[in-house]
């Protein structure tokens, strides 16, 4: 029997147009690569431009239907401007001017931008703080229940799961809590584009009851950068509304290359996903076993499931604590890049995190083990003190203005912002979670943490003053 998932409507349309020899006097102006110079062709490949067939978007609807069928969603909506756009679309659908949204405080900065665009008011959902590891995990279902009880005005809920460190929330319980009140649940599931193609946890959010799930298909999956997905479940969100919001803010010239990569990724995983992810999980497990024998390295494993807020865990996130070596994760990340040409996902005050995927071969995993073993044997000698990570309670900043109101207020730059209301986001990246948001009041802990982090190697790309000598605040 023919397997519908073997089809690739977008890729087939691109190939058909190329085979037919169509000459276009429309866009794109490079004429399917004819106008590309030899240097560009050497670096990017002329075939890339030959596949830049905007007409292929006519087949996206069929490809979206196949994707929804593959992962058990009501609908799938492809986006080509990254999950930041998908987040904007989702939040603009479930919230509008004056509405109230229960929002994870450790969300990506795109969520805050969405609140500003929507004019919605956040009620912040505080994550569970792991004092031993000094890292935030998802808020527990009990925390969500209390927030919904304390704020009956809440119109929608937005969670981020899994976190950058691979810990996952109890989406099913939270979805049940939301639906009992007729409130839609949106999940930023950027790192979970492969979850729906394998029977083991973590469970895909849309399969656990989320009304909207946003996935980045370039992070741990097979899509080109900017390949993103909005999955719709249940009946609390109208897909027509989603598409109207998407049309409001996205490009009218979407990339056929991005669409094609989504189409091909879905086919590959629908047909071969269990085998591919089984292999990745096996390699991740073997690597963890090897790293446990290396003195000075501590590796997160399934024991993290006992922590508050952690219902599921993604074994393909490899979190390695290097603090016992007397260095920071920032230093470890830099050393791996400069000395071994290995790029980690992120470094923080005490750990380095690697995203392992279905595409990592044995040789790459072996190289990573050997590199970490060498790092442990002879860590960098430079003394660069780790920034003190404040307890989460110290970073529970007071929200004194709405994000939109503060963002558009009259502002000024000040050297000492303590006690003042922020007019900007300052987001250590990765993971891009703002340490302070527009409308929150600066305290001493967050200022010292950010400045010490910058000195230690933290990357902060969005601050108004990249040196953090000053901060942008609302004028008194």
In whole angstroms, the N-to-C terminal distance is: 70 Å
The average pLDDT value, as a whole number, equals 94
Indicate the radius of gyration in whole angstroms: 23 Å
Helix content: 25-40%
Q: What is the domain tally? A: 3
Question: Which geometry do the CA atoms define?
Answer: globular
- Give the class from helix and strand content and strand pairing: alpha/beta
**Poorly predicted ranges (pLDDT <50, ≥5 residues)?**
none
Strand order of the largest sheet: 1-10-9-8-6-2-3
CATH superfamily of the largest domain: Type I PLP-dependent aspartate aminotransferase-like (Major domain)
**Counted beta strands:** 17
Tell me what portion of residues adopts beta-strand conformation.
5-15%
CATH architecture grouping of the largest domain: 3-Layer(aba) Sandwich
CATH top level of the largest domain? Alpha Beta
Main sheet attributes: strand count, strand direction, barrel closure: 7 strands, mixed
Give me the number of helical elements: 14
CATH topology of the largest domain: Aspartate Aminotransferase, domain 2
């Amino acid at each position: 029997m023919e397997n519908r998932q073997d089809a690739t409507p977008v890729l087939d349309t691109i190939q058909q147009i190329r085979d037919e020899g169509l000459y276009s006097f429309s866009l794109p102006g490079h004429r399917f690569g004819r106008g590309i110079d030899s240097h560009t062709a050497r670096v990017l490949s002329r075939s890339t431009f030959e596949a830049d067939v905007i007409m292929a978007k006519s087949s996206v609807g069929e490809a979206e239907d196949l994707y929804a069928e593959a992962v058990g969603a009501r609908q799938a909506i492809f986006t080509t401007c990254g999950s930041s756009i998908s987040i904007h679309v989702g939040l603009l659908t479930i919230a509008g001017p004056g509405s109230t949204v229960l929002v994870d405080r450790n969300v990506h900065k795109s969520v805050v931008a969405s609140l500003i665009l929507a004019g919605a008011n956040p009620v912040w959902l505080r994550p569970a703080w792991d004092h031993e590891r000094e890292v935030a995990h998802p808020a527990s279902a009990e925390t969500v229940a209390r927030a919904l009880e304390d704020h009956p005005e809440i119109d929608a809920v937005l969670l981020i799961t899994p976190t950058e460190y691979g810990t996952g929330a109890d989406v099913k319980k939270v979805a049940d809590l939301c639906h009992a009140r007729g409130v839609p649940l949106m999940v930023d599931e950027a790192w979970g584009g492969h979850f729906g193609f394998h029977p083991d946890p973590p469970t895909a959010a849309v399969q656990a009851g989320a009304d909207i799930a946003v996935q980045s298909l370039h992070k741990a999956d097979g899509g080109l950068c900017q390949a993103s997905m909005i999955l719709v479940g249940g009946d609390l969100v109208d897909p027509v509304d989603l598409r109207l919001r998407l049309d409001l803010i996205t490009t009218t010239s979407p990339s056929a290359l991005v669409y094609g990569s989504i189409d091909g990724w879905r086919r590959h995983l629908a047909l071969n996903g269990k085998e591919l992810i089984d292999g990745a999980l096996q390699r991740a497990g073997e690597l963890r076993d090897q790293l446990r024998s290396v003195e000075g390295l501590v590796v997160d494993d399934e024991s993290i499931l006992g922590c508050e807020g952690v219902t599921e865990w993604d074994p393909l996130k490899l979190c390695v604590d290097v603090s016992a070596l007397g260095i920071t994760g920032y230093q470890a990340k830099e050393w791996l890049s400069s000395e071994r040409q290995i790029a980690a996902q992120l470094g923080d005050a005490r750990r380095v995190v690697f995203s392992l995927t279905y595409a990592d071969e044995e040789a790459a995993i072996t190289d990573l083990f050997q590199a970490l073993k060498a790092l442990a044997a002879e860590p960098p000698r430079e003394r660069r003190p780790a920034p003190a990570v404040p307890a989460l309670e110290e970073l529970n900043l007071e929200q004194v203005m709405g994000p939109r109101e503060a963002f558009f207020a009259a502002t000024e730059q000040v050297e000492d912002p303590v006690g003042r209301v922020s007019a900007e986001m300052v987001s250590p990246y990765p993971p891009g979670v703002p340490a302070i948001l527009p409308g929150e009041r600066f305290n001493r802990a967050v200022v010292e943490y950010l400045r010490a982090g910058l000195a230690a190697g933290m990357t902060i790309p969005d601050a108004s003053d990249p040196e953090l000598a000053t901060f942008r605040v609302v004028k008194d």
